[in-house]
């Protein structure tokens, strides 16, 4: 099974992943799975992920949404993006418990 299929199956039900930028500790972060891409909003009123920057290699750890056990570690590269209106709306809609205000959005692309 390709990694995108594994991520798709797991992240349709999960909204949190572990992200570990090289040289930093892993952080549990809220993420949005959209169109085959993991998106992470950081800064502002959102989470802080030390070391996350454009072009940085990271490890994405996904746990099973049903058993919460370790599912897969995926080497990814963080790419800073300026979300279009549709993507920004999806990021806001997915955050049901807060009004999000982020400084940056990153795509986590499998390496």
Task: Describe the secondary structure blueprint for this structure.
Blueprint: H1 3-11, E1 16-21, E2 27-30, E3 32-34, E4 37-42, E5 57-63, E6 70-81, H2 85-94, E7 104-110
Antiparallel strand pairs: 1-2, 1-5, 3-4, 4-7, 5-6, 6-7
Give an overview of the whole structure.
17% of the residues lie in helices and 41% in strands. With 111 residues, it is of the alpha+beta class. It has one domain (3-110): Electron Transport, Fmn-binding Protein, Chain A (Pnp Oxidase, Chain A, Roll). It has a seven-stranded antiparallel β-sheet. The chain starts with a helix and ends with a strand. The model has no long low-confidence stretch (mean pLDDT 85).
CATH classification class:
Mainly Beta
Number of domains: 1
Give the helix level as a range of percent: 10-25%
Described by the principal axes of the CA atoms, the overall outline is globular
Question: What's the gist of this structure?
Answer:
The model has no long low-confidence stretch (mean pLDDT 85).
Write a concise keyword list for the protein shown above.
111 residues; Pnp Oxidase, Chain A; alpha+beta
């Amino acid at each position: 099974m390709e990694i995108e299929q594994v991520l798709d199956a797991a992240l349709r039900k999960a909204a949190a992943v572990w992200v570990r930028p090289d040289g930093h500790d892993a952080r549990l972060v809220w993420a949005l799975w959209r169109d085959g891409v993991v998106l992470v909003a950081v800064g502002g009123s959102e989470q802080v992920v030390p070391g996350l920057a454009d072009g940085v290699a990271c490890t994405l750890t996904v746990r099973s949404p049903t058993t919460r056990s370790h599912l897969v570690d995926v080497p990814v590269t963080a790419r800073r993006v300026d979300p279009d209106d549709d993507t920004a709306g999806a990021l806001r809609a997915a955050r049901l418990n807060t009004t999000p205000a982020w400084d940056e959005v990153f795509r986590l692309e499998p390496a």
